[in-house]
Design a protein that fits this description.
The complex is a heterodimer.
Chain A (H helix, E strand, L loop, with lengths): L9 H25 L8 H4 L1 H32 L5 H16 L2 H16 L4 H26 L3 H9 L4 H31 L11 H12 L2 H29 L5
Chain B lengths: L1 E11 L2 E12 L2 E5 L6 H8 L7 E6 L2 E2 L4 H9 L1 E4 L11 H11 L5 H14 L15 H13 L5 E5 L7 H16 L4 E4 L3 H7 L2 E6 L2 E7 H6 L4 H11 L4
Parallel strand pairs in B: 3-8, 3-9, 6-7, 7-8
Antiparallel strand pairs in B: 1-2, 1-4, 4-5, 9-10
The chains are: A mainly alpha, B alpha/beta.
Chain lengths: 254, 244
């Protein structure tokens, strides 16, 4: 078959996508009937308030962490190219250690050692701090990568027309960096939302922990998992759409 | 415009690419030619205020150019600079590429800047391309818009760094024609180029840069007819070897 080049007609794309979704659901359904499981979502109405609270807390943690990790990431990205060597190496070490170790380890170490030692005993605050610290390393790499990808000639051209350094950042580097980082940053936001589920390990009652607690009492683990997946997708799917919109919209760099 | 270089030099990582260069002459249209690595672009970037010399001085019309950022910003704003390629701002359309510096650097109102951009685009036959981003334009169009941006504020001098080297031959002539037309209007320029025909016929003076020094300098026609050094002779014959 010839490879599909260029844009697929929208109707054809939608129908094919739908077919794939149906297929996935059918396979899942078949698997359920093979192991003789029937699903019962009756508990959702019973625990609606708790589920709602957990969902809101997940959103809250994610938004706070997004903002904090952006600030931290920007500082670290700048720090990695500073001439002050101890600062540069500190930023480098931070990015390497955070990106090279699992979040679950960081959560335990931070919460039970550093948190206990320094009196951070509010689980929500600790959770947001840990998550921001974790995601900040990734954000730093996104920002640094896009800064490095800005063409030297663009900066030279900005100087040649008479822009000051500040004007060069404001009119040329800034807009080009936003265009380059927005798709990746929105994608990172989707990661933050998913990663926040691990804060359930230190009993932050976000949506994962809420559903874990519910399924621990009614033993409906499958239903809880499916609901959990659906709720995360409600948050991450629109973000992924926004990300690919930015990608198309701002795609001009040669 | 009188351009004077006094023992101007420049090194990169300890390697000197411009050696104590002296020059003093009235410049209206000057072509700088010479083999790659001879220091042509380095010299042009220093004259354009984009690169700080390692030693020596540059004066324009008797005024010493001070190579600190505060003095260089207005100095650069008074010149037009065209790069080999990729000098247009990627994220702005053709019109904004011209209009933005007019607003931000030269203090024009938004309407006046846009009007000036439209006027130049129309003159270059690019009126229909104003809304396009650089990536949507041909190389020749990009370079013509880059020239339009450079001349929009009415600079005293236009500096062109190999403006056609990255272009297909069919686009080269449209860019050279434009520079020729600007010359007819009295635009002064210095161009680094490998287009020997253009250097010979469109530029009054010619400088041959070789291994970081001005090897020969004088009226273009004279240098082409009577190269004084074997280096220039060899360079010219090499470039003209396959001419039709």
């Amino acid at each position: 078959m010839a490879p599909i080049t260029g844009r697929v007609p929208p109707l054809r794309a939608a129908l094919n996508y739908l077919a794939v979704c149906v297929l996935v659901i059918l396979v899942f359904w078949a698997s359920l009937s093979i192991i003789n499981v029937s699903l019962d979502f009756g508990f959702v109405a019973r625990y609606a308030t708790r589920i709602g609270d957990g969902f809101v807390l997940t959103v809250l943690i994610s938004v706070c962490s997004m903002v904090a990790s952006l600030v931290l990431g920007a500082v670290v990205a700048a720090g990695k190219s500073t001439r002050i060597l101890p600062l540069r190496y500190a930023c480098d070490l931070y990015v390497r250690v955070i990106r090279g170790t699992p979040l679950i380890m960081q959560i335990y170490l931070f919460f039970y050692i550093i948190g206990t030692a320094w009196g951070v005993d509010n689980r929500l605050v600790a959770g947001v701090m840990i998550l921001s610290f974790f995601e900040g390393a990734y954000v730093a790499e996104i920002l640094r990568g896009s800064l490095l990808s800005i063409n030297e000639t663009q900066i030279e051209a900005a100087r040649s027309v008479g822009f000051t350094r500040v004007q060069t950042v404001r009119y040329i580097i800034g807009p080009q960096m936003v265009a380059r980082t927005l798709p990746a940053l929105t994608g990172q936001f989707a990661s933050i939302i998913k990663d926040s589920s691990l804060l359930s390990l230190i009993a932050v009652i976000e949506i994962t922990q809420t559903l874990r607690e519910i399924s621990a009492t009614n033993f409906q683990l499958f239903e809880a998992c499916l609901l959990m997946g659906a709720l995360y997708l409600v948050l991450t799917l629109p973000i992924m759409l926004i990300s690919s919109y930015f990608e198309k919209r701002l795609d001009y760099a040669s | 415009m009188r351009i004077a270089l006094d023992r101007l030099s420049r090194s990169f990582d300890g390697r000197e690419v411009l050696h104590s260069m002296d020059f003093d002459d009235e410049v209206s249209t000057l072509a700088i030619i010479g083999p790659s690595g001879g220091g042509k672009s380095t010299l042009l970037r220093i004259i354009g205020g984009l690169l700080v010399p390692s030693g020596g001085e540059l004066s324009i019309d008797g005024r010493l150019v001070l190579f600190n950022e505060r003095d260089l910003v207005p100095y650069r704003a008074g010149l037009g600079y065209v790069f080999q390629a990729g000098g247009l701002f990627h994220h702005l359309n053709a019109r904004e590429n011209i209009a933005l510096p007019l607003r931000v650097v030269h203090g024009l109102s938004a309407e006046a800047a846009t009007a000036r951009a439209e006027e130049l685009l129309a003159r270059l036959g690019l009126a229909a391309e104003g809304d396009k981003k650089p990536v949507q334009l041909s190389g020749g169009m990009q370079q013509r818009i880059a020239i339009a941006r450079a001349i929009a504020p009415g600079p005293q001098l236009l500096l062109l760094d190999e403006p056609t080297s990255a272009l297909d031959p069919e686009y080269t002539s449209e860019v050279l024609d434009l520079i020729g037309a600007l010359k007819a209007e009295g635009m002064r320029f210095i161009v680094v180029t490998h287009e020997l025909g253009f250097a010979r016929h469109a530029c009054e003076k010619l400088a041959f840069l070789y291994e970081g020094s001005i090897w020969e300098y004088g009226p273009s026609e004279q240098l082409f007819q009577n190269p004084q050094t074997p280096e220039l002779e060899r360079f010219l014959s090499k470039l003209l070897e396959w001419r039709v």
